[in-house]
Amino acid sequence: MVNARKVSFSKVMLVLGLLFLYLPMFVLVVYSFNASRLVSVWAGFSTQWYGALFQDQQILAAVWMSLRIAFYAATMAVCLGTMAAFIITRFRRMRGRTLLSSMVTAPLVMPEVITGLSLLLLFVQMAELTGWPGDRGLATIWIAHTTFCSAYVAVVVAARLREVDRSVEEAAMDLGAPPLKTFLIITLPVIAPALVSGWLLAFTLSLDDLVIASFVSGPGATTLPMVVFSSVRLGVSPKINALATLIILAVSLIAFIAWFLMRRSDEKRLKGNA
Amino acid sequence: MAKDLIPLAVKERVRNVLFHRRIVFGIPFVWLLLFFLLPFALVLKISFSSAVMAIPPYEPVFTLVDNTFSVVVNFGNYLFLLSDSLYVAAYWGSLKIAFMATLVCLLIGYPMAYAMARAPRHVQLVLLLMVMLPSWTSFLIRVYAWMGILGNQGLLNSLLLWLGLIDEPLRMLNTNFAVVLGVVYAYLPFMVLPIYTNLVKLDIRLLEAASDLGCRSLTTFWRITLPLSRGGIIAGAMLVFIPAVGEFVIPELLGGPDTLMIGKVLWEEFFNNRDWPVASALAIVMLALLLIPIILFHRFQSREMEKHG
């Protein structure tokens, strides 16, 4: 058997790789408490940049806009993505299924500039033909984000659906439960963890998107990544360091909770098997 | 009578099931058709148009005037892309940088995934979260972090100067090196994840059999582990390569004036020059170049999604 205790090349690479992933973020966190504007100079501990961050109306408005879009997009993406996952894993002989499965996998790798440009052209054309959308903004970004996020949700949910034991569902259907009821009572509780993680994934993806939102938004709607980008383009800014620290803190907290919940359900499953 | 009743009830049930299926099928299908596939057709259409000073800034391709339906197809944009060496250089530069970054990601990511798959189960979960966590924080901010590290007065140069390894700051920011580094940094988790998923499912008995039969561990790796994890490698490589080719943020923030990447050129063509038809033609050519990688990825992904656990 493979010796688990031996120091191997792959273990060294794992440690180095994790260091590579975390050191730059660590640097950001440390320098967010730097009193100086410059990266190279440490001028003592200070929380002034956090104060400045919370006084920046533009950033606060953008945070609120981004959170709203992410919430709506993630919610819609979970609905669409779950349906798509169902079709791909269950309806094996449905016509058009192949087309759907390629439309689900393509957004996972599609370069953002292409997706953004294509959606903008669609919205422009739609506005010409139907008068909607008159202004591009929250609604158009929501549609764009929902579309690419539902692909990620579909992958997460399909992975879970494949593991579900179908005999219980079939039993319920055989006993006369209508499909919707079967779904709500039997399938939904089983795939609920996947729906939650799909929602969270979609939420972070939407919060993070700069390129697609830049294409499909109008003058009225500025999301957080757009504000960050326009400030970062000019160089290093301590306010952005403070913002980065808060984002890293929030994500770490959620990851920790997720880890805790997953470990608990893992232990339960192992106990159940024993 | 009873004989007839049962088929009727069954028919009713079947109709009910089919009705639900149609709804479940219809909604995501129509959504993706409208907001994913149709937009590409529009990009193709606009790429055959020509730019004008108007809103929207392009000539219509199809027109219906006085009962005459006319189609004006302008191949000028594509000829223009070929004639200006800037665009060819940008495509080539994107492919080169994406290829190098994918290779580096694979060289770092494979051993990482291998070590993760070999770790005890409760450690695996922690490691998995640790690898994924950076990709859940802001992409933009992670790229930005390198601006502070690589700059002329940045952390790395200060450190090297202080150690006495260099006498004057190295120019690292705004180079192609910084762009490759940024792509590797941003996309590494997407390489590790599919390889890990693949390796963790690997049948350990095959490896035991090989070692029982006297196979050396390195040989076992080359002849069994590596070929069996091919699917994960392809998926990981495509998840890095395809988005990296069209990357805009990384060359914009870390690249220099000599960094030519197509995503950045498309962005400038669209936002700065407001030449939508040329931007569309750029997108269509990029898609054509990426078609084979996308098909490769799709084949792997649909096999993964349809496989029964």
Textual characterization of the structure:
The complex is a heterodimer of chains A (274) and B (309). Chain A contains eleven helices and no strands. Chain A is mainly alpha-helical. Chain A has a single domain, classed as MetI-like (MetI-like fold). The two termini of chain A are 24 Å apart. Chain B starts with a helix and ends with a helix. Helix content of chain B is 76%, strand content 3%. A two-stranded antiparallel ribbon of chain B has the order 1-2. Chain B has 309 residues and is mainly α. Chain B folds into two domains: 70 residues, no CATH class; 226 residues, MetI-like (MetI-like fold, Orthogonal Bundle), CATH 1.10.3720. At the A-B interface, helix 1, helix 3, helix 4, helix 5 and helix 6 of A face helix 1, helix 3, helix 4, helix 5 and helix 7 of B.
Which strand order does the major sheet of chain B show?
1-2
Low-confidence runs of chain A = none
Proportion of residues in extended strands of chain A: under 5%
- Sequence of secondary-structure elements of chain A: HHHHHHHHHHH
Helix content of chain B: over 70%
Beta content of chain B comes to under 5%
| Pair of chains with the largest interface and how many residues each contributes | A-B, 106 and 104 residues
User: How many runs of DSSP E, i.e. beta strands of chain B?
Assistant: 2
Quickly give the CATH architecture of chain A: Orthogonal Bundle
How is the main sheet of chain A built?
Answer: none
Number of DSSP strands of chain A? Answer: 0
CA(first)-CA(last) distance of chain A: 24 Å
Oligomeric status of the shown chains? heterodimer
CATH class division of the largest domain in chain B: Mainly Alpha
CATH topology grouping of chain A: MetI-like fold
